[in-house]
Amino acid sequence: MTTQLSRLDLMQEYELAPDSALFAQETVAALRGCSIALIERDRWIGTGVPFIKTGRLVRYRKKDIREWLAGHTVFQSTTQAQQQEARSFKVKGGQS
């Protein structure tokens, strides 16, 4: 029988692990504060943390998790985030 670790336990395990450590999607979800379903969806559409697939196992490198998190903008409000999203959409050719 496997024991599920709490979010805090998963985060502590991540922090104490060496950079070469591999983690399951449960740890990534704990670090992002989201559901496993969101991690799976992001992986499927290609917007999530880069991963390694070995057979049926999906694992994430600590280095890749850290870089992915660092690559995301920190916002002060949802309005600021929406404005940034609108600017990005225009730059990518969504509107003239």
Your description of this structure?
The protein is mainly alpha-helical and 96 residues long. It has a single domain, classed as Arc Repressor Mutant, subunit A. 53% of the residues lie in helices and 10% in strands. Strands 1-3-2 form a 3-stranded antiparallel β-sheet. A hairpin with a 2-residue loop joins strand 2 and strand 3. Helix 2 packs across helix 3. It is globular, with a radius of gyration of 16 Å.
Beta fraction = 5-15%
Structural class: mainly alpha
What is the mean pLDDT?
Answer: 87
Q: What is the number of E strands?
A: 3
Low-confidence stretches: none
Q: What topology, given as strand order, has the largest sheet?
A: 1-3-2
Rg of Cα set: 16 Å
Overall helicity: 40-55%
Characterize the main sheet: 3 strands, antiparallel
Q: Judging from the principal axes of the Cα atoms, what is the shape?
A: globular
CATH-derived architecture: Orthogonal Bundle
Q: Give the terminus-to-terminus CA distance.
A: 57 Å
Element-by-element helix/strand order: HEHHEEHH
Please write the CATH class name. Answer: Mainly Alpha
Tally of helical segments? 5
The fold-level CATH name is Arc Repressor Mutant, subunit A
Instruction: Tell me the domain tally.
Output: 1
